[in-house]
Amino acid sequence: MQTLLRNLRFAVRVFRQNKGFTAAVVLTLALGIGANTAIFTVMDALLLRPFAFHEPERLVSVSTHDETQDRGINLTRYEMLRDHNSSFEGVAVWAGDTLNLSGNVEGGSEPEQVQVARVSANFFPLLGVTPQLGRTFSEEEARPEGKAVVMLSDSLWRERFHADPHVIGQTIQLDSAASTVVGVLPRGTRFPILGEPAVWTPRYFEFSLFPPARLRQGVGYLNIIARLRDGVTLKGANAELAVENEQYRKQNGAMPDADTNIVFAAKSLRDEAVGDMRGKVLMLACAVGVVLLIACANVAGLMLSRAISRRSEMAVRTALGARRGTIVAQLLTESLLLALVAGVLGVGLGWAATRALAVWGGDELPDGFALTMDWRVLVFTLVVSALAGILFGIVPALQLARVDLNATLREEGRGSSAGRGRVRMKDALVVGQVALSLMLLIGAGLLMRSFVRLMRVETGFDAENVLTMGVSLSTQRYGDAGKQTAFFDDVLRKVRALPGVRDAAISAALPMAWMRMSPVLAKGQPDAPLAQRPFVDIEAVSPEWFETMRVPLIEGRAFTNADAGARDMVGRVQSSGSGQTPAANHAGASPHVVIVNEAFVRRFWSGQDSQPNPLTQTVLIGRIPEPAQVVGVAADVKNKGLAEDTQPEVYVPFAQLPWGKMNLLVRTRVKPEAMAESVRAQIAAVDADQPVTKVRTVTQLMSEQRAQPRFLLAVVGVFSGTALVLALIGIYSMLSYAVAERRKEFGIRMALGAGRADILRLVMRHGFVLTVMGVGVGLIAAFALARLMGSMLYKTGEHDLVTFAAAPMVFLVVALVAVWVPARKATRVSPMETLR
Predict the structure, then answer these.
(1) Rounded to two decimals, what is the model's pTM?
(2) Would residue 176 be called left, alpha or beta, if left means φ above 0 and alpha means ψ between -120 and 50 degrees?
(3) Model confidence over 659-702: pLDDT tens digits?
(4) Residue 366 near residue 192 (C-beta atoms within 8 A)
């Protein structure tokens, strides 16, 4: 211990005498350590930190999916698994919904639309969550005849009920239906996948968008969380689920999810919650690891250069009897002290970077995770700092400990130069820095190319000056399809009359998204059972939607008011839009009509021997026995996000497929944000208790679609920029020290007739050769590792030629500047002064 304290005191004295060197080392390392701390905080939150549930490692998510997407769980499948399995200790279910909340014990609260989680009664006991007030749900309350009860989130309890401890037993209105509060969840409780519901109800067998009878016909609106029994592995549970899936198909062959392509499987709750973020986080972890390696190489180069000035010191200490181990211990103590000081600063930088990530990129992270530093992050930072200290300190320490006592003392007073071994080591460090930083630069270049293409993608519609807002009608007041149609007709009529409004329409899904899917059978396709028919997007729109969104019709016509007088797709006669019931009966109502997109035509009718006219074709949708006539073909629009190819889609007149949850789209003559309050007022004029949500423009929606790739590009760009700067500093400092060490050599060369241009070429050739070698190594490594980025790129090849050509050229040009500055200094050496 005394030896350690003595070494520490000596190290502090050394650093005080070399404040510039100490500051350069600490800041360089702090950048690398801080970046690693920030990304490890994200990795810790997403991949390492256990969920705050009882034995979270036994929790799994059970889902159904085909080759392309998740298909959801229906009631029949859930009940079959719940009642007949041997792998799970418990099976719980949940579904996300939105309802209109109004009222509390004090009254007077404004109505608002809230996120609601519909869960089975065993949901909270299965997770091990205990409410801070009240109780959880009982089995009796989770039945159709049970009492309507709810639990509140802590945030809703504090904001709407002012943290009233007597809230238990109070009544609230959800879609105008009374529900009694029985519990309040603990503060800070986070549920992966679910988001942040404000209200919880045990009525999972209901859903605001479908009548109960429809839910029993195979609607996949549920999600399953289960707990494995002790000793049961995920592999064993999946084997049982495969058997259950076969039994389900045999017993429920008419269900839409009885297709043989449907897989019924479980995965860990963490894997389900993290999704594709795992690969992206690991890529960022590799990126910051590279930054730290470059920082360590940079500092190691500085330490090697500084070692020259300390050779005499070490020779004297050796002459006085110091052992090699003692010298190495002293030098490693200095390196570790520098690294630990940098680690403390790195924690601060990492905390600031984490806050920035939470603010600027929080929406891009999965639900249910908190970006906070904990003991794992601090231990990681401590370990990384110690390893960095050893990494950059061990080679200079060993080289100084092997100093030649006689040679060093003879050279004292007449100058010296670095040995070949030390020169080769510094050159290797420069080559390594260049290679590593070029890898990051190429990675950032690939992401940049991908993002530019994502920015230029054709959406198929005009996004400028379009305002959107969500309107979810109360199932109590607007349970009838005719009332839903009348409400939206009145709203559209009032909104279109506003000054500054060009067009207005409604749609079930927002632009670039989808809301509903259904199995379809296009005319001319082989007949198949419902479960074996392909699923396509079904979009309910008002007749004006195509004009409002500027989506051209390739063939046929748009929907008209005459289509609005048709039966809806469950056979009910709809109003004509004025709120009055038409005199039409089933025989006199308009036929079902649809518009399909170009992708639909390509998939179902383009491959036939004699391609039929789409306007002569019909489409069977879901369980509807009557086929719908195709009256138009619309141009393709992005319907699965900007980065995905357009999928087949069927447009249906809203009056034929009414729904209580719609989106209002308003094209304006002025800035759309300026019209938001006026549009809200028109909705309130139709129903003063009707809230609206998610007021955004379509350009904002597009920006949100690009947010994750933009965020990833920004983070990798910062890291690659940092690596580039560190590499250039390494090149500059290495050549600067080399010039200082070779001043005598340059003086002799100039005294023998060498010109300044010769000296300039000599130094620049040395730096340029090292840079080219680093670029070569970096290209080979980047080419091999680029495959890992394939899933993150949009319409950009992993080995994009432009990127792999441009990045090295940019690096070489910038590196030439770093080489030229010390080379220029070498030409200013005075032969008289160096030889004197």
Answers:
(1) 0.78
(2) left
(3) 888 999 999 999 999 999 999 999 999 998 888 889 999 999 99
(4) yes
